[in-house]
Amino acid sequence: MNHLLARLEALEAANRRWRHACLALLLGFATLFLMGSGTADRDELSARRLVLRDGGGVTRGIWEMTGEGSRLSLFGAQGSASLILSGSSRGGRMELLDQAGLPRLDLGFQDPDGAFLQMKDPRQRVRLELLQTMVGPLVSLRDAYARKRLAMIVTEAGPGISLLDSLGKSLLGLVVASDSPTIGLNDGLGRILWMAPSDR
Question: In the CATH scheme, what architecture does the domain 125-200 have?
Fold first, then answer.
């Protein structure tokens, strides 16, 4: 009799486990069905933030929504960002960062300004800049204090080069307008000291 009671209790316990397993499976299928019922395209994944990790669990990338648009950050093995791609309604941007996580190259496009490229030194000072301005492309080289010392531009009239002092005043200029070259020397106040050809 005890043997039959033990077998009956074992069967009832197994029956309870099966009922719980079937209920959990049914709830799982219902959850999957309800989660997918509002999605028109079953091949689409929707998220506000996606984190990519390597085999060791280290974060190597984050794709997220920001207040202005979206941003993709890729990280090196040390954990600092090495590349950031971002986009907004005004344009897109790409930043390359050094091992300290500081941006060293900045490339982008923003309305209405146009395209730009900046190269920075380890102290985050812009040393080279390329801009698409309203009158044409402009290249400027800057000193260790980020002061513009050489500027080159190409306009519809022609190209021009300017050498500037530490205050940003042009001291030497060379312009080729309508296929005719002009070179001039100025003082720190912008007054012409010498110009050739002299009849201009």
Answer: Alpha-Beta Complex (3.90)
